[in-house]
Design brief:
Layout: E1 3-8, H1 20-40, H2 45-49, E2 53-55, E3 64-68, E4 76-87, E5 93-103, H3 109-126, E6 129-131, E7 137-139
Antiparallel strand pairs: 1-5, 1-6, 2-3, 3-4, 4-5, 6-7
Helix pairs in contact: 1-3
Length: 144
């Protein structure tokens, strides 16, 4: 059974909307900085830190993409963006964007570890509210 984690862009987040292209850019940035870490310690850390290829299908264009790995410990992670209608405490409705990270059936424990790592990275960069796979919430947004 698939499990999901969400990075919700709340009103105090750095951004209020996000696209799949922006999420991909964050993954490319993650890949770049981990590669630089590997250069500093003289080790091919990039292949270990991000053992995936970013792929997108025609039907998922603009809505979702997936990370696929040929490594034996990793298989597949799905990433999507969408919006939901939220009713605030003062009974006003607003649209809230979120990034959904899904571990489908063939995913491994390695994928879950990497997905948790990626979720925390994305939530920090977007200053969002992270709803983890185990239903716990981590707040990376400025709070009052």
């Amino acid at each position: 059974m698939a499990v999901n984690a969400y990075i919700k862009l709340v009103p105090s987040s750095a951004k209020q909307t996000i696209t799949t292209e922006e999420v991909k850019e964050l993954f490319y940035y993650y890949k770049d900085i981990t590669g630089k870490t590997g250069d500093q310690i003289n080790w091919q850390y990039n292949d270990t830190a991000f053992p995936y290829e970013i792929n997108e299908t025609a039907e998922g264009k603009g809505k979702w993409f997936y990370l696929k790995s040929n490594h034996e410990r990793y298989k597949l992670i799905l990433i999507g963006v969408d919006t939901e209608t939220i009713i605030d405490e003062d009974s006003t409705e607003r649209e809230q964007a979120y990034v959904q990270v899904t571990l489908p059936e063939p995913s491994t424990f390695g994928d879950k570890g990497k997905a948790n790592e990626f979720c925390k990275f994305l939530a920090k960069k977007l200053q969002g509210e992270l709803h983890l796979f185990n239903d716990r919430v981590m707040y990376f947004n400025p709070r009052k």
